[in-house]
Here is the input.
Amino acid sequence: MTQNQQTIVIIDDCLEDRETYRRYLLADDTYTYRILEEEYGENGLELCKLVKPDAILLDFLLPDIDGLEFLSELKHQMGKNNLPVVMLTGQGNEAIAVQAMKSGASDYLVKGNTTAESLRVAIHNVVERFHLQSLLEQSESGFALPLRLCWIVSAYSRVFAVALVEL
Here is the structure.
């Protein structure tokens, strides 16, 4: 898999919509995509567990669960509050958009207003945000061990801890 290839999971019960999103993404000049699809939320959750997608396009209204239930399960599954999810719905209800964002979605698009450009911009933003977040987490984990060692050492020997910090 190349560095610019991103794995996208599309979860939508409408085949026509999935085909449209696929077409929009395959015309992207920035990234290439490995696109996987599901029409049910529960199957989508299982797929996300297996492939760890870079971004998820999620229809709000699914046959088995709604988008908010999906977000709740995905938060539990990933152990994170912020999710690489773009919520899609035919309902242009701002209350749903606000609730989706509060529930961890990174962005929200109204199906009837979604263009190839708006979809690509939303996906790029999610991919880039989560790539930067991953780099930050890796960087922070590199500093965590020395700080813990200083803390453990300082509990037993202040002299040694001061010497360790000065190194």
